[in-house]
Amino acid sequence: MQKNYGVKFLSFSGALPSKVVKNTDLEKLFDTSDEWIYTRTGIKQRHVIDKNESGLSLSVDAAKQALNKAKIDPKSIDLIIVCTATPDKLYPSMSCMLQGKIGAVNSACFDLSAACSGFIFGMTVASQFIYTGQYKNILLVGVDIHSRFVDWSERSVAVLFGDGAGAIVMSSCLAKDDELKGFILRSESDSKLDLTLDNDNIYFTDLQDQVKPDFVRMNGKAIYQFALRVVPEIAKELLDKTNMSMEQIDYLVLHQANQRIIDAVAEKLKVGKDKVLSNIEKVGNTSAASIPLAIVDALASNKIKTPSTMLLIGFGAGLTWGAAVIECNILK
Ligand SMILES: CC(C)(COP(=O)(O)OP(=O)(O)OC[C@H]1O[C@@H](n2cnc3c(N)ncnc32)[C@H](O)[C@@H]1OP(=O)(O)O)[C@@H](O)C(=O)NCCC(=O)NCCS
């Protein structure tokens, strides 16, 4: 593709709710144990929203930090994309509500739904507007509030998810300085409905019943196998496409779904533990926020060098999966 401009990543930020739910707290809700959860998933705790918080409040927090770090006036933002599968409202969109809260009065706004792959899909969509010269500054947010949509008595799903938001500012630069080195997006209809959150159980004839959206339903084994099939494959495909080798990748940043998935993929790709970012122990699976939150965590704890080359891979419901190689020149 002919690029008129390149993409520069100006900042990465994140926001987590203040309430922490530890595995030991879940032991009081259903028959489980810290040991089972930790050995199966690598998760020790997750953050969940309280009544004074929402997906919007976390997005505002993350977005404000990202704009401050990038030293970008909200009025200079041309486009806001919020990637989420669990919006606070079906409409208005999260991005329109966020626009109002941060005063980004000159931006166009839309939400993007690709579940746990949302952030990678959003980043690549945003990049197209920058490459063509249509927009200069884009705010991209990944946010999910799964605590509203898990059945807190269904132990195999409830242990996995946490709430959170991640935000980045992407800006245009010279095409030769492009920090998005390449990407691939893939989708495959989940005909067996191995990972679903239904919203189609509300009918005119049932109006008296005040039916609410359903809970997350998941075939854990099928999703595990899906991840182990597609993630190593797309990693290799993207390295081929960008003429890079795994040795040139400083950090592998996978969607934080399960530490066992992260470890198994790293092993398949022969990537050492020191090159794999993970914060799942502290936050669980935060869906569209998980990749930026993992990067923010690593930056904040000085775990990574700058500049660095990162291979990001998201996967999730849809089914969807996507990979991007980026250069990260951000210090904190
Ligand atoms: C969910 C997941 C951790 C379950 O692990 P698993 O090893 O497949 O476990 P199983 O579902 O086979 O369950 C094994 C046993 O543990 C039990 N179990 C399930 N959840 C439990 C929990 N929270 N605590 C204790 N026991 C639990 C099951 O009931 C089952 O018991 P049984 O053998 O008596 O029937 C795993 O399948 C997984 O991580 N899948 C991917 C999920 C994911 O990443 N989703 C998001 C993608 S974006």
Structural commentary:
The chain is of the alpha/beta class and 332 residues long. It has two domains: 6-177, 3-Layer(aba) Sandwich (Peroxisomal Thiolase, Chain A, domain 1), CATH 3.40.47.10; 180-328, 3-Layer(aba) Sandwich (Peroxisomal Thiolase, Chain A, domain 1). Helix content is 31%, strand content 25%. It is built from ten helices and 13 strands. A five-stranded mixed sheet has the order 1-7-6-4-5, with helices on both faces. Strands 8-13-12-11 form a four-stranded mixed sheet, sandwiched between helices. A two-stranded antiparallel ribbon has the order 2-3. Strand 12 and strand 13 (320-328) form a beta hairpin. The longest helix is centred in the C-terminal third of the chain and has 22 residues, at 220-241. The mean pLDDT is 95. It binds coenzyme A.
CATH topology of the largest domain: Peroxisomal Thiolase, Chain A, domain 1
| Protein structure class | alpha/beta
Report strand order across the widest sheet: 1-7-6-4-5
Number of domains: 2
Q: Characterize the biggest β-sheet.
A: 5 strands, mixed
Radius of gyration computed on alpha carbons:
19 Å
What small molecules are bound in this structure? coenzyme A
Q: Distance between termini?
A: 32 Å
Q: Care to count the β-strands?
A: 13
State the CATH class of the largest domain: Alpha Beta
Helix content: 25-40%
Kindly report the average pLDDT value: 95
Low-confidence stretches: none
Q: Which CATH architecture of the largest domain is right? A: 3-Layer(aba) Sandwich
Globular, elongated, flat, extended or rod-shaped: what is the shape?
Answer: globular
Sequence of secondary-structure elements: EEHHEHEHEHEHEEEEHEHHHEE
Our count of helices gives 10
Into which percentage range does the β-strand content fall? 15-25%
